[in-house]
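Entry 14. Two folds queued back to back today. First construct below, sequence then structure tokens.
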Amino acid sequence: MPQIKPIDIVAPGAFGLNTEKGALLLKPQWATVALNMVINRSGRASSRLGWNDQTTNPISGTKQIDVLHEYLTEAGVSQIITCADNKIYKDIDDYTDAGNDITNASAGTADHWQFLNFNGKLLGFQRGQTPITRTSSDFADASYSGTGPDGNCAVAAFGRIWAADADLQTVRISALLDETDYQIASGGATIDMSSVWTNGMDEIVAIAAMGGTLIVFGKNHIVLWADGSGSEIGLSPARMQVVDTIEGTGCIARDSIQATGEGDLIFLSRHGIQSLGRVIQSKSNPTVSLTKNVRSMILEVIGTQRTADSEFDQVRSTHSPE
């Protein structure tokens, strides 16, 4: 009679999910199905934590919350800003409270706002909508000196607002510590990305900052700008220059970009989920992704999402250091 032999299964699933080779005989450290699974701090497969309700009185009906943003006031008070059904709210506890609605008078027609905390104010940008600003009460349409931005993406960095125009080719730069002034005489500036793309034409999808570098993401380009003179504010529009360009990949979803670890950005491209740090290191192979083990599944999801949402406005990512 055959003897029963023990099999040691060390840290099952610790390598994560692998659907690319799911039909093959994999080591037990790989998971081929991972429902509600995370890798914990010990590097082992673990169950995702549960949910705690934060809302006492929800939005009536079946309305969907599309945006969550933490706004920190100058006093250090945290407010969770939410968007649903073309409304903007400042409190996630009671949506039946009329004072919770801080929508601007000329309410937008979509909920895909990108919010920025800047100089004690909360700024909002969205495709096809007038930019909005809030200090302490309701939002109001932004008013500018000079020609202000009217695009879908922006970043607050180096004491300025860096925002795209609706033409998807122009980055408008505000004056120092003044999000309302884009006049050149005040220190504002513009970048014409149509003269910067290196591999045919592209369009601005997202703008980010990392360390002392400004990053402009196209769909098929990543362009990095820096200030070689070591400006006190980190990056001076008068002295900035292109320090690197990457062709063959880019960002396809504005809200997929997240800062992780020390000096890295994660973003969604047409190749999957990528790390900017790894892409820079592997410029000869810019398609390297963090999702190679689930590549087919990710590409299928991207294709399905593109059919339903061509601009990927509904794609969101989050990152928690915990």
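Second construct, same run, same settings:
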Amino acid sequence: MRLSLITTSLILALFTFVVVAGFSLSRTGPRKLSARLLAGFLLALAASLANFLYVTSGMAAQDPRFAFLGNSLGLAAAPLLYLYACSLAVEGFRLRASTALHFAPVLGVLGVVVAAYSLQPEPVQRAILHDAQYPSALNSKLLQAAIFLYVFFYLLACVRVLLRHRALYRQQQAATGLAELGWLRISLAGTLLLAVVEVLHQLLVGRWPLAWLDAGFVVVQAIAAFLFGFYFLVQALRQSAHPPAPVSLPGAGEDKYGPHRLSDAELHENATRIEAYLAQSGAHLQGAIAIGDLADRLPITARDISQTLNRHFGLSFFDFINRQRCEHARHLLAEQPAMTVTEIQTRSGFSSKSSFYTAFRKCTGMTPLAYRQAHESSTQRSGSVP
């Protein structure tokens, strides 16, 4: 019954990966590359799952020729996940001929599998498959460690790309959400945690080969893998419906603006236009606003808006909008004593209490309530002076 349940779960997971991959391959539009990379990642996972099913179901015992092939192909999931993250996070991301180098280790492992296993006589294949101590390259601790480090390296590379995207995203957007790719960071954190648990699994079970300890690790890893896998699939599909906001990575060099560098006069003119538009329209008080929204309403490109805010005000777009919102909130706190702090937060364009308090404290050095109390005390002292 236990084997039947595991087999059924594996088949269901395999079917889900293939279906979602097929859905991703059928997508068209500007995010087609991301969809293709997601499909490749899911198919690589499906190959690894199929290999596991092939071994655990007993089929490998009857015909061991294809064992390890699925796992070898499954290694491609690591660079594919990295490329998928890059396609979501980096504006103008394209696949190049050099991208194939990411998969060179996969081909190397596949070559080792073919030479050290697939081309060997069946008795040797069975010995390698069932005896971890059999002298073979596939049982080499060095090869196993290299494979683990290869996967771990790409997971860390994904995290680095997403953290950099988050920092740059906040320079261009005044609100956070699905486009900030927090869901992918959570998925990667879960995967890294599973990798660490697997290392502990191998170390502890190798030191104390107890059946209950091995089974406990397997159950915990299976449940965690299901939860993180389900979360990843749901969020990836949501991401397909709500395209992310990729960012342009700043180039190297002393002047990152290059030939697009604005003069001081142009910076001053742009700054005046931006402040005048916000004062007149109150666009920053209506909730989420992106740098592209200003570019659509002003005769200034998004690139020049970003440069103006960075060089003239010394602020990112995120901080500039929050500063404008805080100025509005300060006015309401001083002029509308009957208005609640929550209402002021909403009227100032902040989506949450935490973001309001954080931004207001950054601008004024105190909380909204403390600012109101300080203003009232100052007014009372001024009024009592003859």
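Quick look at the second one. Residues 175-179 have pLDDT under 50 and may be disordered. The CA atoms of residues 69 and 110 lie 7 Å apart.
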